[in-house]
Amino acid sequence: MKAKVLIIVSNANSIGPNNRRTGTFLPEVAHPYAEFENAGYHIDFASLTGESPFLDALNLAADPDNLKFLTGKGWEDMHKAPKLSELDVQHYDAVFIPGGLAPMVDMPENAELKRVIAEVYERNGIVGAVCHGPVSLLNVQLSDGTYLVNGKNIASFTSEEEDNYARADVPFDLQSALTEQGAVFHAAEAWSANSIADGNLVTGQNPASAKGVGEKMVALLESKNS
């Protein structure tokens, strides 16, 4: 049986006091999608509200994986993503949360998202996230009451990167918030590829790390099926 992967995306399209336009950052969904597709996995999408999500970084559409996502089944399926609460996530072997600034708007406190991530993680499914996507891991409490990220090796968009990207727009600093909940944070050189697997949790730092997150998730899924 080929693995089933659920990609969970934000529905936000603006952020901050100046209503900066945002969405899911194209390569952060397209590059892992390409890895899952190449592995022959069944890929579904869900969004938090069930409304059509938004894409950011369409200026990067010339990248082959990005273009294939936009013109193929990827964006078509993401555009029609059902509401997360309407899905039975027990059928999925992995969940993946791409970044973009949008998740910083609607994912820090979303109770259904936290429940889904905890459920998948505690049954030893794979949980992956990249860039601002690891905001989805914040406030996820396991059945013993501890935070999911506590003691875990984690990468996400860094404070240094945020200072040069969207400091005036984000509601809080992601690196600091993850660290406050006990994450062992790994910051590589700004904008360099940096993805980390810690058990069945895979995280990445920035757009350049999205492919690596997808590759590591595939490696974990393949090792479970071997």
Automatic annotation (TrEMBL):
The keyword Hydrolase does not apply. Keywords: Glutamine amidotransferase, Lyase, Stress response. The keyword Lyase applies. InterPro entries: Class_I_gatase-like (IPR029062), DJ-1/PfpI (IPR002818), Prot/Nucl_acid_deglycase (IPR050325). Residues 28-217 form the DJ-1/PfpI domain. Coiled coil: none annotated. Pfam families: DJ-1_PfpI. Belongs to the peptidase C56 family. HSP31-like subfamily. This is Type 1 glutamine amidotransferase domain-containing protein. It comes from Chryseobacterium gilvum.
